[in-house]
Structure formats: C-alpha cells, structure tokens
C-alpha cells in the first residue's frame, strides 16, 4: 500500500523544484550570455543580466524560509551558549519574537513597495520592459514566509515553556520525528 504524501512533503517538493528551476535557469542564462558575448557579440541581448539578477535574488530571498524553518540561519551563539538552559530558552524566545516582528515589518513594507511600483507602472530599462513589481513581489512573499516560520517556532518555544521543558536554542529546531509529522 502506497503512503500518501503529506502537505509538508508537497510544500517542500514544490519549494525545492521552484528554487532549483530558478538557479538552473540563471545558470543557463549566464552560460548563454558568456557564449554569445565572446562568439556572437552583435547578437547579445540587453536583458539577460537583468533576468539573471531577478532569478538569483528571488531564489535567495525565497530560500530564507527554508533556513528559518530548519533553524539554519545565521546565529550568534557564542554568548548565548554561556547561559544555563532556562536563560537560553528565554533569550531564544526574545530573538525569535524579534524575528517575527522584523520579517512581518519587511513583508508589510514590501507589499507597499509592490503596490507603489505597480501603481506607477514601472518597467525595467531593458528591451524586455519587465514590470518591476513582479520582481519586487519576492520581498513580501519571502519575508511573510519567514515570519510564519518564526511564528511557528515561537509558538513551539512558548509551548515548551508551558510544559516546563527548556532546551538549547539549537534543540528548538524540529526533531526528525517532528519533521516527519509535518510531512504527513
């Protein structure tokens, strides 16, 4: 009997497929641009560098969600690790709360940036005339996803507080069992 994939597994697969496609498309465009630049310079398009930047920056921003979700983002642990577990737990609660607030604020202002660019009808300067609001959309989407991942972690930390369990900040990342439950 075949086990059905859970929602978490489907989301991870879509995310991996999307990020992989974006990076591979950027790599293909870079390769194409190099070949054209050296062998057929008169045929060089003015939009390839622009699209490469859109793909790489969007992929970088969207990958932030995975890093926050897996607790693999940049952290300053040198000082925090010197405290006892209960204090580390509350420091982690504060840090994650700041993460929720910061990512929510960037998502909010990113949405305003998208609306502003769309209302002005701003397009790129290349022959592609790409509407920049579409590119800007990666900011509110990626930061909203990161805020949601931080919020889930904050709720887990507060649930641990309620149960009286304090683990180190690194241990607040989902365990393999928790990750399996998320996948369905």
What does this structure look like?
There is one protein chain. By secondary structure, the protein is mainly α. It has one domain (7-183). It contains seven helices and no strands. Helix 1 (7-39) runs antiparallel to helix 2. It is elongated. The model is unreliable at 168-172 (pLDDT under 50).
Report Rg.
21 Å
Low-confidence stretches: 168-172
Identify the overall geometry.
elongated
Helix content: over 70%
Structural class: mainly alpha
Number of helices: 7
Q: Could you spell the SSE succession in H and E letters?
A: HHHHHHH
Our measurement of the CA-to-CA distance between the termini, rounded to an integer number of angstroms, reads 16 Å
Strand content: under 5%
Number of domains: 1
Organism: Notoacmeibacter marinus
Family: Belongs to the TRAP transporter small permease family.
Keywords: Cell inner membrane, Cell membrane, Membrane, Transmembrane, Transmembrane helix, Transport
Subcellular location: Cell inner membrane
Task: Give a quick set of tags describing it.
single chain; 184 residues; 7 helices; 0% strand; TRAP_DctQ; membrane; transmembrane helix; transport; transmembrane
Topology (SSEs and partners):
Elements: H1 7-39, H2 48-69, H3 77-80, H4 85-120, H5 132-136, H6 138-163, H7 176-183
Helix pairs in contact: 1-2, 2-6, 4-6
């Amino acid at each position: 009997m075949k086990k059905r994939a859970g929602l978490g597994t489907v989301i991870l697969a879509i995310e991996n497929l999307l990020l992989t496609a974006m990076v591979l498309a950027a790599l293909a465009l870079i390769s194409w641009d190099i070949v054209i630049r050296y062998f057929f310079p008169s045929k060089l398009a003015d939009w390839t560098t622009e699209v490469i930047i859109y793909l790489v920056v969007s992929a970088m921003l969207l990958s932030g969600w995975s890093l926050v979700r897996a607790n693999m983002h940049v952290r300053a642990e040198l000082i925090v690790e010197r405290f006892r577990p209960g204090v580390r737990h509350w420091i982690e609660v504060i840090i994650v709360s700041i993460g929720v607030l910061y990512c929510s604020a960037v998502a909010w202002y990113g949405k305003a940036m998208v609306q502003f660019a769309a209302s002005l009808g701003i397009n790129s300067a290349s022959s592609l005339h790409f509407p920049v609001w579409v590119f800007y959309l990666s900011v509110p989407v990626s930061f909203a996803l990161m805020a949601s991942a931080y919020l889930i972690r904050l709720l887990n930390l507060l649930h641990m507080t309620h149960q009286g369990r304090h683990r180190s900040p690194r241990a607040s990342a989902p365990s393999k069992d928790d990750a399996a439950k998320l996948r369905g």
